[in-house]
Amino acid sequence: MTRPTAPMPHNGAVSADLADTAAPDAPPRPRRRRGLTSIEALALLLVFGLTARPGLTDLFAAPAAQAWSARFVAVCVQAFPFLVLGVALSAAIAAFVPADFFHRAVPKRTALAVPVAGVAGAVLPACECASVPVAGALVRRGVAPAAAFTFMLASPAINPIVVVSTFVAFPGAPEMVGARGAASLLAAVTIGWLWAKLGKTEWLRLPQHRHHDDGKWAAFWAAIRHDFLHAGGYLVIGAAIAAGLNTLVPETWLAPIADDPVLGVLALAVLAVLVSICSESDAFVAASLTQFSPTAKLAFMVVGPFIDVKLAAMQAGTFGRRFAARFAPAAFIAAVAAAVLMGAVWL
Amino acid sequence: MRRDAQAVILLLVGGGMLRLAWTGAYLDYVKPYAFWLIVPAGVLLVAVAAITGVQAWQDRADADDGHGHGHGEPKVAWLLLAPVVGMLLVAPGALGSYEAERTGTVVGAEESRSNYPALPDDVDPVPLTLLDYAARAIFDEGETLEGHRIQLRGFVLYDGDEPQLARMVVSCCAADARPVKIGFEGDVPEDLAPDQWIEVVGTYTPRQGRDEINGELVPYIEVESVTPIEAPDNEYQ
């Protein structure tokens, strides 16, 4: 990559993509003042990790700890590639798509932009880990947040991969595919309109990317680095919680509830939040929950891509905690309501 | 967090994923197709780490003007070290009997399957996956299984005192792993350890039991022989 050779003001090059960098004429900071620098802390951690390996193996020798760590690593290994795809797309949007593109492409009226964004969600063939950073990039690029959120919710539920996997998971029940798509789109658009009506911009706290004088590629790489470290850290929190709930909560609590039509729907909706399964494969898990009514299975598949433990952590990281605290319950209620409605109509 | 520390973390995450792909250990956590997701993502992360490292090095040559500590960078990124420790140091094995004993059998997912192709007559015994055997036994009343010797491979788990054969079915990653279980009719060695992989040759029997956890049916197999085997590379199905 190329770097400008001209002298730069206050070395504003690459690290200046972050918020609150030092004032231009701040005096040079003596490095020693902060005590342990992060690179030294990292080196210490590495040494610790290597020497503590036998201890770690002992610590995780118990079956429950093994199961937890296997699930934790599994969620991370499965989610990281999609997160990388998402941050690469979002960095590309930030660096290469001209700012006025979305002004032309997205309808001016928010009421109209929301359903358009929902249907446009079908073009991103990835799971929910990818759609969160992409929605963040859209908001930064000036797309109305209502439309960006609708895109974020609809995309992991109605894209082609998910449609096909739902179709395969429910052979002989194609109405499940239709009901899932309709319910997800309905709930996503509802949330978008709700945000347009009631949402407040001050709830949003997007990590700011600074303007770059250093060229588009520098902006691209800096955005990937920053977004991955940021969203990835939150993803780790979500993965750890989801793995813990999966390991500690016994499945037997589901069985007695399954026969009750109302409790069954609520139980599977809550289960979808707790287990945090990728939207591309949740249909297979739903299909295996045979004791439950079709509507309950539909609720599982509509709620999962909208809100779960892993997603809530990532949304808090991308849009701020005040946003996530309001968005998560709204998304949950909208998803359950849409699933019940579509279940009554289709199933 | 300084930018050189960021580069190291990116390198560790990307390198850890590439190492899982290289050693084949990724099969303990995700489906085989995920190889084609893990490798490009790992390569991209390592590339980002390299670019970040080069930039940090170049900037060091410039005046040290207070950017070195790069504040504003999320502290939460430190948590990315947790999966790195998990992948490289703890390296937990595939889920086995501990999970299977706590989760209901998954055979119900096959309920609406309509197609049970006839088994080949020129192969003896016929190797089948546990899920296929269970679906044929329960939802097709074993019609296609009659007259064949069947070979099944899985690990041992105990339902109370009764040994069972099981295999974990994974649809996306190990977090959604659920077992499919099969009971033994007839004599099996008494010293089978949980998680020991075995190859069972036997014939269909109409006997069925129920999994107490979720009330699903558990089919049985009339056992001819039980042979301990090595765990396969991909322990999931």
Automatic annotation (TrEMBL), chain B:
List each copy of the DUF1980 domain by range. Answer: 140-236
The organism sits in which domain of life? Bacteria
Does Transmembrane show up as a keyword for this record?
A: yes
Q: Which Pfam families match?
A: DUF1980_C
> Which keywords annotate this record?
Membrane, Transmembrane, Transmembrane helix
Q: InterPro entries from the xrefs?
A: DUF1980, DUF1980_C, UPF0703_membrane_permease
The record lists the membrane-crossing segments as: 33-56, 76-95
User: Cross-referenced PANTHER family, in alphabetical order?
Assistant: UPF0703 PROTEIN YCGQ
Query: NCBIfam families per the record?
Result: TIGR03943 family putative permease subunit (TIGR03943)
Q: What is this protein called?
A: TIGR03943 family protein
| Organism, scientific name | Glycomyces endophyticus
